[in-house]
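Help needed: design a sequence for this.
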């Protein structure tokens, strides 16, 4: 299934096997989100028992994790009005009222986010066989922009804490560790949870935990954003297609294992199939630590998950502040 010496043929074969082109019609713009049906949301709502919620967001600030690679920088937050202005009577509103206002400038994929369907192409083709240059121009993604997903990212979330299952002493996987279908199946079985069609799948590797330990030690984020990392194996694409997940998110920068499993140079081969062929939405840099600890404590690895991206018109990816409710 994976020839380490021949990424070109391996990628092409995987793309043909898992392709969802035409599955929901030639005009489809939602890809695997079509699998997240109203019935799945009813199922998800029934999972709420205690009402305890978990913030899965790495907060958006100037301190990381970006370091400028691919022109991605950390958010720049600027105040347009402050308390000092109010004390000085600037601007001069009547009756003593004052206020603060602010703005932010940032790449849309600077922190916790979804990759949209216009984010990655394969040989000039976008999801559903569209010509890349026809759908994403200097004005943005005019067909599968992230705003097309508005109101849809609410459903049954499932956490597979592969790191805690395979490495119980550290709950962390080493960089370069490829999570295979066998690992996913074993983790699900140990957790007593089944991954079903339309699920929003979360996979924890422990990479964020290791980065935070580095920060606490004073050495910064290191290569968390763009460097080597544990992640999903290229071979997991068939597993994701067979289970018909609606989306998958991890606690890493790029979802897939880095470096790749190929012995010759490649760049994001998993992305090259998952987004343009499978039509799968990928979530990156999610904070799964608190949720994972709770799941390990109570043994419940399914929950209601609400994760709508900021609906920036024409965006090929967007920030998200996901909330899991148990």
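Sure. Designed sequence:
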């Amino acid at each position: 299934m994976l020839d380490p010496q021949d990424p070109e043929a391996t990628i092409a074969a995987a793309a043909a096997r898992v392709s969802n082109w035409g599955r929901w019609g030639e005009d489809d713009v939602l890809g695997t989100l079509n699998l997240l049906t109203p019935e799945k949301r009813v199922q998800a709502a029934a999972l709420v028992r205690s009402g305890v919620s978990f913030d899965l967001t790495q907060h958006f600030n100037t301190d990381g994790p970006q370091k400028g690679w691919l022109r991605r920088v950390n958010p720049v937050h600027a105040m347009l009005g402050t308390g000092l202005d109010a004390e000085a009577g600037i601007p001069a509103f009547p009756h003593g009222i004052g206020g603060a206002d602010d703005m932010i400038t940032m790449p849309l994929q600077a922190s916790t986010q979804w990759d949209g369907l216009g984010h990655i192409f394969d040989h000039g083709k976008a999801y559903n066989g569209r010509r890349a240059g026809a759908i994403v121009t200097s004005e943005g993604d005019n067909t599968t922009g992230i705003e097309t997903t508005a109101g849809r990212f609410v459903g049954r979330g499932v956490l597979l804490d592969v790191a805690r299952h395979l490495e119980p002493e550290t709950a962390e996987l080493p960089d370069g560790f490829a999570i295979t279908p066998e690992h996913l199946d074993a983790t699900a079985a140990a957790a007593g949870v089944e991954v079903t069609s339309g699920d929003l799948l979360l996979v924890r590797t422990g990479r964020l935990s290791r980065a935070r330990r580095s920060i606490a030690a004073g050495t910064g984020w290191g290569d968390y954003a763009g460097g080597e990392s544990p992640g999903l194996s290229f071979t997991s694409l068939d597993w994701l297609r067979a289970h018909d997940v609606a989306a998958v998110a991890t606690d890493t920068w790029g979802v897939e294992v880095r470096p790749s499993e190929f012995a010759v140079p490649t760049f994001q081969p998993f992305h090259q199939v998952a987004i343009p062929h499978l039509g799968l939405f990928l979530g990156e840099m999610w904070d799964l630590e608190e949720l994972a600890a709770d799941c390990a404590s109570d043994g419940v690895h399914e929950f209601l998950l609400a994760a709508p991206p900021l609906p920036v018109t024409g965006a090929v990816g967007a920030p998200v502040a996901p909330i899991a409710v148990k």
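The chain has two domains: 7-72+107-325, 76-106.
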